[in-house]
Fold this sequence. Notes:
By secondary structure, this protein is α+β, with helices and mostly antiparallel strands. It has a single domain, classed as q2cbj1_9rhob like domain (Jelly Rolls, Sandwich). It has six helices and 14 strands. An eight-stranded antiparallel beta sheet has the order 1-12-9-14-5-4-3-2. Strands 6-13-10-11 form a four-stranded antiparallel beta sheet, with no helix packed on it. Strand 3 and strand 4 form a beta hairpin. The longest helix is centred in the first third of the chain and has 12 residues, at 28-39. It is globular and about 55 Å long. The termini are far apart. The model has no long low-confidence stretch (mean pLDDT 93).
Amino acid sequence: MEPRKPSDLDDFLFDLNGYLILPQAVEPELLDELDRAIDALPQLGMGEWLGNAQRRDYTGETGLEIHNCVELGGPFEKLIDHPGWIEYVRRYCGEAQSYVEGLFIDECILSVRRAGGHHPVHSGGFRGALRGAYHYSSGVFRCGQCNVILGISAVGPGDGPTMIVPGSHKSNFEHPLAGDYGRGDRMDHLVGAVPLHLERGDALLFVDGVMHGGSSRTNPGERRVTIYRYGPSWGATRFGYEYSEALLERLPEQRRRILRPIPPVRPDSN
């Protein structure tokens, strides 16, 4: 695939709403690879490691969440610089036309959610963290973090779609009905929030500063997605995860630069 590039309309809608849906971003063959890899996973308890990936569910209701999922190998590595979205994140959060231009994946998660699961509402422009802030000035985007949620399975009504309050990345006021992040508030009926449905292979791209969360899954079966969070080259992983030397050594250079854009400088460095 040739890398897709954001259009003028994409820029307008991303600036206006804080998100884009990229239809059919990933080819069916890669989706099948991801499904097979998920089917082959062993049972993991909370906190257990699988190589250099760890099960770390955000809450008791978010479902199976494996952090550092790129370490699961194969198809997960292909998502690092996937042409369905890589030029979008370069433009929106890659410090384009600056002396620190480049990307870093500061968090990557495999999420499998079953009936009853959800993720509480969080973020928003009001007192938002600089890490996820939205900024545009002098013709360039300077977002602190952009998230790409890939629908490995279709995510429709009742499947627990991500919900977003459009435009809230620029909000100067607290949402009076949203409560506090971490209190467990569900997004299902939050005024102003809209569900974003995905066909299998679609990707949802959004700036982390927009108010978002996962609505309740009421259907049987599983919601399977990956979440890759991109930020500028000087970033750090949120929970202190590191990418293994084994992974970095086997990756092509262009992918390795996204996981380790700034190699460590040591006395024995060439």
